[in-house]
Amino acid sequence: MGLISKLPAVILSLLTNMHIVHNLMLLYGLFLICCGIAAVAFIGLKAKTALISGGTSGGVCIGIAYFSCYQYQAALVAGIIVSLALFIVFSWRCTKTLFAIFDLMANPGKELKGKGIAFLIIGLMAVVSLIVFGSQLMILFTGHSCNQ
Question: What is the pTM of this model?
Fold first, then answer.
C-alpha cells in the first residue's frame, strides 16, 4: 500500500530526472561498446564474441537512452531491467572465466594471459552494470540524483 500511494510522486521524480537517466544509459552503452573493442584489441580475434556482445548490449543501452530522452517511461523500466540482466550475465561470465583461469594455472601460457585480460574486462563490466542499476534505483525510489 505504501508504494502504491507514492506512485504519483515516483512518476514525477522519473520525469524530472529523465535527463540523468538518459545520460547514464548513453555513457553505459558507450562503455559497453568500448569494452568489446578493448577485448578484441588486447586478446585478438578470439574475443570476437565480446565485440558482438559489447556492441549489441551497448546499442540496446543507447537505444534506451534515445527513448528516455523523449520521456518514454517504458525506457526507464527497460534501463533498469537491462542493467540488472547485464549484471547477472557479466557476473556469470566472470565466474566462468575465473574457473577457466584456475584450470589453466597448471599449464601457464599465452591462453592464460588472454583469459586474465578477459576476466578483468568482464569483471569491470559487471561492476559498472551494478553501479548503473543501483543509480537507476536511487533515482526511481528517492527522486534524488547523484548531482543533487
Answer: 0.81
